[in-house]
Amino acid sequence: MINTLIKKIRQVDAPIVAGLDPTLKFVPEHIKQKAFEEFGETLEGAAEAVWQFNKAIIDNIHDLIPAVKPQVAMYEQFGIPGLITFKKTVDYCKAKDLVVIGDVKRGDIGSTSAAYAAAHLGKTAVGSGLIAPFDEDFITVNPYLGTDGVKPFIDACNQYNKGIFVLVKTSNPSSGEFQDRLLEGGEPLYCTVAQKVAEWASLSMDTGDYSNVGAVVGATYPEIGKTLRKYMPKCFILVPGYGAQGGSGKDLAAFFNEDGLGAIVNSSRGIIAAYQNEKYESFGPENFADAARQAVLDMREDLKNNLG
Asked: Which domain holds residue 246?
């Protein structure tokens, strides 16, 4: 699967992931009003508003980017209707030839991880058949439970040609409470995790230089990114934190390898809620999807100017 992502990055010449992380405060009033008129102020109404919001943005940016990253929590907050919208979003993006990274951050004991892997990467046995429930191309994985919690996801990658991004150093302000703790020998915990990810990466190599097992390292820590890039030469790095969280193109060169590959940069609200940003306010709520497209174009330019 990593080769599919690389092919798409090369096609559009942009290592960009659009994070489809909608909340109702991002959805323009005219879309919410129409959805509520049809379904009421219900979970179904909220899920319909999110679906129409997503669809318009995807239609406007799918030709500019290789991948999207829907964050499942933003859909789960609307219950079963929200999960239906999550699935519709995944399917719609794949129909637009986008790689879908499900930001689900799963990880548990082996049998539970196997069930998560079946749900999001593989297939579930139903009677005499096998059915793919959510069918993302990649998902994010929490490594806290160790190898027996991650191995089922790697097995699914190998069986179904899928991929994972393992949390190594996240972009949130309090990530250092655990991730930066110094271990015996003086190295921070995130270095130990990176070494383990590199080991796991060897278990799912696609043809070529990169593994189906990648890592998540926040753009807000460029010096750490430089260090971790050396630990994980065969791993693609999913880089959150661009834009709204403070990361910019000048922070990102160290996340990439000399071949110009090795990382893909996520922007979520910086794209989908661009119309609420002063820079793009001239578009207005009615043209929110056009504002999203312009935000992607500006991000592409920023990355090109700083990455070469």
From this structure: 2-307
Q: How many domains does the chain have?
A: 1
* DSSP three-state, residue 105: strand
Answer yes or no: pTM beyond 0.70.
yes
Of all helices (H) and strands (E), which one includes residue 116? helix 110-120
Helix (H, G, I), strand (E, B) or coil at 36: helix
3-state helix, strand, coil split of the chain in percent (to 5) is: 55, 20, 30
Residues constituting the chain: 308
Q: What is the pLDDT averaged over residues 96-125?
A: 97
Distance between CA atoms of 20 and 65, rounded to whole angstroms?
13
Q: Is residue 19 within a helix (H) or strand (E), and if so which, with residue range?
A: strand 16-20
End-to-end CA distance of the chain: 25
The secondary structure of 188-215 as a DSSP string is BHHHHHHHHHHHHHTTSBPSSS-BSEEE
Unique residue bearing structure tokens 């508003």: 49
Q: Give residue 308's pLDDT band: very low, low, confident or very high (50, 70, 90).
A: low
Q: What is the CATH number of the domain that holds 154?
A: 3.20.20.70
Residue 154: closest CA among 169, 170, 165: 165
Bridge partners (DSSP) of residue 265 are 16, 239
**pLDDT tens sequence across 67-109:** 999 999 999 999 999 999 999 999 999 999 999 999 999 999 9
- What does the alpha-carbon distance between residue 307 and residue 26 come to, in Å, rounded to a whole number? 30
Q: How many CB atoms lie within 10 A of CB 308?
A: 8
Q: Are 97 and 133 in contact (CB under 8 A)?
A: no
Q: pLDDT tens digit string along 239-288?
A: 998 875 556 677 798 899 989 999 999 999 999 999 999 999 999 999 99
**Alpha-carbon radius of gyration of the chain:** 19
When mean pLDDT is compared across 84-88, 125-129, 251-255, 299-303, the lowest value belongs to 251-255
From the candidates 55, 87, 88, 105, which is the catalytic residue?
Answer: 105
Catalytic-residue membership of 151 = no
